[in-house]
């Protein structure tokens, strides 16, 4: 005798949630508006610089000063000084910042790491004019013996050949000041990236017999590579655009090819120094040089994002 069993009622699936609730739509609209506002601000800055600076590309030769007859001859030495000072700052600050971040996140005990982190972060709150004063009054005179040493024993290198500044106000001094200024930015970002490395990966490396340094090299650095590059590029952007400290340390002029001599300056410092006594023609030239600095900073950040994205794609495919 066959028996029929009553089918058990199937568990009713919950009704699908609305694609977006009111709160989601409001939040999405606010974030979209904020991103569009940032893009609009960047576009407006570019349009202003382009419209006001376009006449500066083709002014009379006397507007550019005695050492330049065209805009290219005017801006090229300043661009060289800007890039050289930023590179010097990166060479000094990046290894130091990565080392400090590594000590704070993995090596130092907490009662030492926390005060060090606070002290490094406090450097970001110091006004740039204070760094400029310190660079002119304290650092520059102390750098003169080092410059004399470089000129005496390494004059066969073109960048160390030539006149040595008696005041110490050279592009190397400006680079050291910039290095101290960008140190907190690079350290803070790198420290945060290092601290987010998965602990299981670190413990697995140690369990397999890796030393502490090998564990860092095999787990922490690969995980934080993109963040390390991003931190360095943010520091580079700060160094490229710094105005007051560089203007106080350096005299007017452009990149002369000699790291130890006077007469070097940057685009931002040149704008700050000459803006007050500007004429209408010179103002357009200064704005045009600001456009060059804007494009340089944009290209640097674009290259940084490309490098970071390429590293992330490589890690994802590994």
Q: What's this model, at a glance?
A:
This protein is mainly alpha-helical. It has eleven helices and no strands.
Outline the fold blueprint:
Blueprint: H1 22-53, H2 71-107, H3 110-123, H4 128-153, H5 171-195, H6 199-207, H7 212-223, H8 225-241, H9 244-249, H10 267-274, H11 280-317
Helix pairs in contact: 1-11, 2-3, 2-5, 2-8, 3-5, 4-5, 5-8, 6-7, 8-11, 10-11
CA(first)-CA(last) distance: 63 Å
Q: Low-confidence segments, ≥5 residues, pLDDT <50?
A: 1-8
The beta-strand count equals: 0
Which series of helices and strands comes N to C? HHHHHHHHHHH
Number of helices: 11
CATH H-level homologous superfamily name: MetI-like
How many domains? The number is 1
Strand content: under 5%
Mean pLDDT: 82
CATH architecture title? Orthogonal Bundle
Can you offer a commentary on this structure?
This protein is mostly helical. The chain has a single domain (27-317), classed as MetI-like (MetI-like fold). The chain contains eleven helices and no strands. The model is unreliable at 1-8 (pLDDT under 50).
What key attributes describe this structure?
single chain; 318 residues; mainly alpha; MetI-like fold; 11 helices; globular; disordered N terminus
């Amino acid at each position: 005798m066959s028996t029929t069993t009553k089918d058990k009622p199937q568990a009713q699936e919950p009704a699908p949630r609305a694609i977006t609730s009111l709160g989601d739509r409001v939040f999405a609209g606010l974030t979209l508006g904020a991103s569009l506002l940032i893009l609009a601000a960047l576009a407006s800055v570019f349009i202003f610089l382009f419209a006001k600076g376009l006449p500066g590309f083709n002014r009379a030769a006397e507007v550019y000063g005695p050492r330049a007859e065209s805009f290219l001859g005017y801006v090229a030495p300043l661009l060289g000084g800007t890039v050289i000072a930023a590179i010097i700052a990166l060479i000094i600050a990046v290894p130091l910042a990565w080392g400090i971040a590594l000590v704070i996140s993995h090596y130092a005990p907490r009662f030492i790491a926390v005060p060090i982190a606070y002290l490094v972060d406090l450097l970001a709150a110091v006004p740039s004019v204070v760094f400029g004063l310190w660079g002119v009054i304290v650092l520059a005179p102390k750098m003169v013996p080092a410059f004399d040493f470089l000129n005496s024993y390494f004059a066969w290198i073109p960048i160390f050949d030539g006149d040595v500044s008696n005041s110490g106000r050279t592009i190397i001094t400006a680079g050291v000041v910039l290095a101290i200024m960008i140190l907190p930015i690079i350290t803070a970002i790198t420290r945060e990236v290092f601290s987010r490395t998965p602990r299981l990966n670190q413990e697995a490396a140690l369990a397999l017999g890796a030393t502490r340094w090998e564990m860092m090299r095999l787990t922490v650095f690969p995980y934080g590579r993109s963040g390390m590059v991003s931190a360095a590029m943010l520091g580079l952007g700060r160094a490229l655009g710094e105005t007051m400290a560089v203007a106080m340390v350096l005299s007017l002029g452009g990149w002369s090819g000699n790291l130890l001599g006077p007469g070097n300056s940057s685009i931002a410092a040149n704008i700050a120094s000459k803006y007050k006594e500007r004429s209408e023609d010179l103002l357009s030239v200064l704005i045009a040089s600001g456009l060059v600095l804007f494009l340089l900073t944009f290209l640097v950040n674009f290259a940084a994002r490309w490098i970071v994205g390429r590293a992330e794609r490589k890690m994802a495919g590994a």
